[in-house]
Specification:
87 residues, single chain, two-stranded parallel sheet
Amino acid sequence: MKKIYLLFTISLLFSSCVGNDKFVLRTSVGKINKVMVVTKASNWNGDVGKEIKKSFGELMVGLPQPERLLNTSQVTPNGFANMMKVV
């Protein structure tokens, strides 16, 4: 039974690595330590935005000067769709 399980696992691993998928992850663009939040302005200016800014905007510990963990910015869904069109 163990041999069958081992054979099945090995064949599954080898068969899963074969493929001609054209999908490739794109490299990230933008500045380091920057997060863009896609939401409506009303959410960003309300409680949701405050919590996001508080969570991502914490100060890093151990640095000689105050520096935020991540910089956050907001863009509307329409603005994001226009900005991220694939050419």
